[in-house]
Every structure is written in structure tokens, then in C-alpha cells.
Amino acid sequence: MKKISLKRPSEPEIPTASTADIAFLLIIFFMLTTVFRTERGLKINLPGAEATERILKRRNVAHIWLDRAGKISIDDNLLDLKGVTSVMAGKFADNPDLIAEVRADRDSEYGKVNDILEALKDAGVLKITFATEFERRGG
Amino acid sequence: MEFKEKIKRKPAIPTASMGDIAFLIIIFFMTTSIFSREKGLKTVLPEKGQEVKIKSENILTIQVNPRGEVLIGDKILTIPEVRAKVAEELLKNKELVIALRVARTAPYRTMIDVFDELKMAKAERISLMPVKEE
């Protein structure tokens, strides 16, 4: 009789020992894919393009924001064209593989973009990307 | 009997809260991470003072005027026509350099549309002509 009473009915349980393993796996994934949000940028609508490519080396990318009013921002600082040249020259000295990503509003004037390109040439930054959204068009 | 049972119990580290801690860190990384937003149209600018002279027969000039119309020569083309035209010219001449001359007041959107068509037409040599301040 006593032996039977020792066998307590085991409570139903969900095994939780492995949830931590699963969670840590996800953490590692997020840690590897994360680039910390360093800037807020300006409010823009990117133009669409079908030939949009991914940039693989994300750590080499520096953003230059241009909104439709013609404001230019790098790292959340509003700059003029001379400022763009000096800031980008500094970034280029730190990282010669720098890629400048021009994030310009689709309704901005091309002249402003042209000025930024000239400022980048002065800074010696020659690898450029025009930020676009992928867009499929007919044909 | 009761005494014996107490000895049998194995020492254990409580792991129930491990998952909670881990998920907390996950949420932190999820909110701070950006998924590869970096995409666009790649190009390389010429170095200052390194302008190369190109024979005029190897240049195809595409113009975008302030109204956002695309012109090759004197002809106004629609955006999809640009791709076919450029592909055709590239077949005729492999050395072809495409010069894109965009007016200062032309919309950026049109410039990107044309640039996109050039990329889709597999044009390798694209030159963005600088436009002077007015």
C-alpha cells in the first residue's frame, strides 16, 4: 500500500527547458543582422526603380538625405554643400570603402542631387548609390 | 521512507526564467534593428580632374528637360521607349557611352526612371553630366 502512495500522480507540464535555447538562437540571429539605428533622417518618399540592387556591405554605407524642400542631412545634422564635402571627406578618411547613399525625395529637383554629387566628388567619395524602392513595371 | 525520498532529489538550477530573459533581449534587438534597407542603383563617379575624352560617335546623349520630358536627339521618348532605344544602340556599338544630361529643375524621379531604364538595358557606361548653377 505504501509503495503505491509514493508514486504521486505527476502534474502535467510543458517542457520549458529548451525555450531559452530557441530564444538565444533568435538573439544570435538578430545580433548578426543588426545595425543600430543611428539616424532618423528626413521625411522622404524614395523613387521606384526596377534595377534596384541590394548593397551587401552595409557597414560601409553613409546616408545623405535630401528632402523635397532641398534640406540636406547627414547623421541628423542639417548641412550645406560645403558641410557635405567636409563631413564625407572625414568619413572617407576613416573608411576608404565608403559608399555614399543618396536618399533623395522623388519630387526634389535634380539640380540639388547634382550639387550633392559634385560635393561628393570634391570629397573623393566616388562610389554612389541612389536609394530607390524596388518597383516592377510592365515590359 | 520519507528521509530517503529527500536525498533522491537532484540539485537543479531554475531555468524557467531563462526564456523570459532571452526573449527580452530578442525584443530589444528587434526594435533596434533595421532589415537591410540599403538598396538602390549603384554608380561610380569620375574622379575630379580625370575627365576622359570620348569620341563623339561613341556618345549617346539623353536629355531630360525641365518639364520632365526625355529626349534622344530631338525626339521625345516615353520612359519605356528609352530601354529599347538604348539596347538597340548598344548592339550597334559596344563602346557606347551614355551621357545623361538632366536639367537642374527637372524632377529627380524622372532622372531615376531614365537611369533605371539604362541599367535595365545593361548599359555599363553611364555618365551623369554635371549641370552648372544658374
Widest sheet: strand ordering of chain A: 5-4-3-6-7
Structural class of chain A: alpha/beta
End-to-end span of chain A in angstroms?
A: 84 Å
Tell me the β content of chain A: 15-25%
Count up the helices of chain A: 4
User: Largest sheet of chain B at a glance?
Assistant: 5 strands, mixed
Helix content of chain B: 25-40%
Cα(first) to Cα(last) distance of chain B is 100 Å
CATH class of one domain in chain B reads Alpha Beta
Number of distinct helices of chain B: 4
Succession of helices and strands of chain A: HHEEEEEHEHEE
Average pLDDT figure of chain A: 84
- Share in β-strands of chain B: 15-25%
Most extensive chain-chain interface: A-B, 61 and 52 residues
User: Can you list the strand order of the major beta sheet of chain B?
Assistant: 4-3-2-5-6
Order of helices and strands of chain B: HHEEEEHEHE
Protein name (chain B): Biopolymer transporter ExbD
Membrane topology (chain B): Single-pass membrane protein; Single-pass type II membrane protein
GO biological process, one term (chain B): protein transport
GO molecular function (chain B): transmembrane transporter activity
Topology record:
The complex is a heterodimer of chains A (139) and B (134).
Chain A: H1 2-6, H2 19-33, E1 48-49, E2 53-54, E3 61-66, E4 72-74, E5 77-79, H3 81-94, E6 99-104, H4 110-123, E7 127-131, E8 133-134
Parallel strand pairs in A: 1-8, 3-6, 6-7
Antiparallel strand pairs in A: 3-4, 4-5
Helix pairs in contact in A: 3-4
Chain B: H1 2-8, H2 18-32, E1 39-44, E2 59-64, E3 70-72, E4 75-77, H3 79-92, E5 97-102, H4 108-120, E6 126-128
Parallel strand pairs in B: 2-5, 5-6
Antiparallel strand pairs in B: 2-3, 3-4
